[in-house]
Design a protein that fits this description.
This protein is α+β, with helices and mostly antiparallel strands. Strands 1, 2, 3, 4, 5, 6, 7 and 8 form an eight-stranded antiparallel sheet that branches. A hairpin with a 7-residue loop joins strand 5 and strand 6. The longest helix has 24 residues.
Length: about 180
């Protein structure tokens, strides 16, 4: 008696599921140019944080008081869920963040290019991340990327941005006016 196995629907279904998952992963990885697009963790360590505080400017560096704690709060927030928006930071808005007496914003500066993993290719090869905490676009919890002194396309929005502002204010880095 020949006991050869015959194909089953379960085997066919599992094969189709594996092939579909591989195709979806591959398509997204190719379109975002990021094989780790599904990763939510952000753990880049900046070489400096420029604090634009209501017309004033301070630069924080590793070793300064509160630098590591601020980086930890920011990285925790940027590791959270995010939404993409086509809103892009213009040159005028960037200058506004640098000089306005109505703005609290952070600019994280990186020595190595960084990427925020997501379904979108726009947040790759960044050398800085701009985080408005008070003023234009702060209410939408937006962050903007910059590469080679130019803004990247779009913005990402995080629900946890108020925690960053609360830390900045409570630690005395910048006080709301």
């Amino acid at each position: 008696m020949d006991k050869s196995s015959s194909p089953s629907l379960v085997s066919l279904g599992l094969t189709a599921l594996v092939i579909t998952a591989a195709l979806v992963y591959g398509f997204i990885a190719l379109s975002t140019e990021d094989p780790l697009w599904f990763t939510t963790t952000f753990d880049a360590y900046p070489e400096a944080i420029d604090v634009h505080c209501y017309g004033g400017h301070t630069t924080m560096r590793p070793g300064d008081d509160d630098f590591d704690e601020l980086v930890a709060v920011i990285n925790e927030t940027l590791s959270g869920s995010k939404n993409y928006d086509p809103l892009t930071m213009s040159v005028e808005t960037y200058e506004y963040y640098l000089t306005s007496e109505a703005v609290m914003a952070l600019e994280l500066v990186y020595s190595q290019k960084v990427r925020i993993h997501s379904f979108y290719r726009f947040f790759s090869n960044l050398d800085s991340i701009v985080i408005p905490l008070d003023g234009r676009h702060a209410a939408s919890n937006a962050i903007f990327g910059r590469a080679n002194n130019l803004s990247t396309s779009g913005s990402l929005h995080y629900a946890g941005m108020p925690a960053v502002r609360a830390f900045v204010e409570s630690s005395g880095i910048c006080q709301a006016k």
